[in-house]
Amino acid sequence: FQEQAEQFFRSGHTNNWAVLVCTSRFWFNYRHVANTLSVYRSVKRLGIPDSHIVLMLADDMACNPRNPKPATVFSHKNMELNVYGDDVEVDYRSYEVTVENFLRVLTGRIPPSTPRSKRLLSDDRSNILIYMTGHGGNGFLKFQDSEEITNVELADAFEQMWQKRRYNELLFIIDTCQGASMYERFYSPNIMALASSQVGEDSLSHQPDLGIGVHLMDRYTFYVLEFLEEIHPASQTNMNDLFQVCPKSLCVSTPGHRTDLFQRDPQNVLITDFFGSVRKVEITTETVSLDHDLAGSESEFPEDELATERLKYAEQLPVAQIIHQKPKQKDWHPPGGFILGLWALIIMVFFKTYGIKHMKHVF
Amino acid sequence: RTSVTSRYEMVYRGTTAQEEAALAAATAREADAALHPLQKPSMGSLTMYVVPETSSLLPQGTVVYVGRHRSALLRAGGSLAALQARLRQVTQLMSFTAASVAAALSDRAPDGRLSPDARRSLKSSLGYEITFSLLNPDPKSHAVDWDIEGAVNRFVKPVLDKLSLVANFSVDSQILYYAVLGVTPRYDKESSSFLLSTHSLPHVINPVEARLGSSAASLYPVLNFLLYVPERSHSPLYIQDKDGAPVSTNAFHSPRWGGIMVYNIEAPASPQTSLPLHVDVDMARVMEVFLAQLRLLFGLSREEVPAEFLLERPGNEGLADWELDHLLWAHTVENIATVSTTLTSLAQLLDKIGNIVIKDDVASEVYRAVASVQSAVAKLGMGHLHSAFQASKEAVTSSERAFFDPSLLHLLYFPDDQKFAIYIPLFLPMAVPILLSLAKIVRETRQRKKEPTKMD
Questions:
Q1: Which of A13, B158, B361, B395 could make an S-S bridge to B339, C-beta 3.0–4.6 Å?
Q2: ipTM for this model
Q3: Using CA atoms, how far apart are residues B419 and B350, in angstroms rounded to an integer?
Q4: The domain containing residue A225 runs over which residues?
Q5: Which residues 59-98 of A have a C-beta within 8 angstroms of B?
Q6: Chain A neighbours among B 349-378 (CB < 8 Å)?
Q7: In chain A, which residues have pLDDT < 50?
Q8: For position A49, which CATH number holds?
């Protein structure tokens, strides 16, 4: 009976995914890349493999020409922890990190030519961790200094995921200024959200490193990383402890969280349910009895056949077509009502001002 | 709103002369084999023969014999009501129960509740990728050879051929060297062997998973079957079950992922034997476990069968015909439920966002999906399992293609305050001289209208 009770409180997921997004570019936003890589590192250490992580970094800090220590991204001053490591696998890099690509990854509406590593192949039994960091405001998050994603779009994307049952449970963590505004609009079930600051508050960075010349981490993620360093795959720490990370005295901003959409009590949710990849296993007690002496059918896998037709090199770039291409005619649309009305107004005003007699020339 | 009702259609008739001849066989198995060619091959239907109580076909103590194909033998006895109850029980075992249908729907429950112990067998998919991996962490001590191609041809292919109706399967294999389990096994003095306890098993998979790899081109779910040969220093290695006893198969599996089996190599007879030891893996023994795990991953388990039922072993085909039907019932229902929720949510999305452009091919996929799912529902209602399943597969393909079409991405969101914030500073200054001029025009025309009357 106790086992049944235990089963009930445990999550019903069979696999874990993580989508880690850093949305800022430029050298002075080093700390956002370091934030994302720290979470990536923890998530890999606790067991989620690269094939189940979609890592999006908007800029390259490790090989940035301004980096005095190339091929490293440090998360702590005195260069204690290099989160770039040897086996970082970035799936979306540099200019590929756009709002459109992010929403495509979440909703699954990806062009067929996209490789497997760039897809979120989650199913209805996947627990997904989504971590976003960058510069944000009240209700939006800035991507690459040129576009934004609003909280309504994000909530709609999650609803699309829910409709297609692309997740079992979702943990959304955001480390930006006014981060709590991003989770205000969620309305799909089984989502738990954490943010580094409330609406109206700024999230602050942790500490600059005088050798590298920039701030290395944001406070909230720094303390979350410290917390996660003590978690190992078998630990039983639950979400309530994660909510306590970084109180106002350390973080200056007030971290917030939202659990009303989540079915289970956060007390019963293990950190490893989202950050790690602990699988449910069952002992195999049955066997299939096989007739060992059966000769077996002839191998029906097709033998390599000799090529019957001559192979040609396929034209990759139809150069002849490109050179002699006529300029494509853009479809011409007649001007819409608003523009027409505006022109009519301006023309009338002109003729009124300068005298009605000019109008006779028009008609 | 969405619910599935099920019923069984029972038809009673006497046996034909040929069937009588077949039933005169010595054992139930021979009778079953003789009866098989006499039945019209139709998926989704079962034939049950009630033999006299005194018949010697069924061994003592067995009341029901379930064959390899789609027939069963029941021993008469007791009242007619008891016989009917037993017939119903056998039907439910061999096809579907209300519970199994509800479980197939559980992921698509309209109220959105997912219970933790909802079905964890593989989701219905158009294809599966099966990967066999041999893990050799200690190549210095063991030079392991496994004839995987031969084993796949002899043992795995018959099973996959039987399952080819359900989905496309692709099989690959690999050997990984220096791949260690994530857990250090404990040494047990009493049995002088190493033990892996049950609660450490979940952590075994993760360190290996990163190296397993999967085909970059295929998007099908992957089933991994790992054969682990323990290091010399950790041999022999046994898996412990909850009560502390070693598991007979020395294997465990994880739902929707695959299975791992530990293959122990005996210590060399004399300590002078030169390393590495050459090992030829007994593929038959290994495949017995892997195929059993494959069945369990698909949800075909024979554990909850009552004691007086005798189920015929499926042999090299891996699963009986009625088990295939069982799978198809569940997958058809699941496919239909998936298609209906996909199309509903697509319709809701397009309602909500008015300015998404729907391409022609998306529209034609939607029409095709609707037509297929309607035909699947109709055929399922009549019990034509094969055609219902094919129609449901087509419906799923079309609806997924329509829903996940890359053109259906909507990015424009204009909240009201953005409208004020952007358009007012642009148009207000522009509009001021226009409005003032309009007012002037109106005033002048009114004046002119008054003037003629004044002059007159």
A1: B395
A2: 0.82
A3: 23
A4: 18-275
A5: none
A6: 349
A7: 298-304
A8: 3.40.50.1460
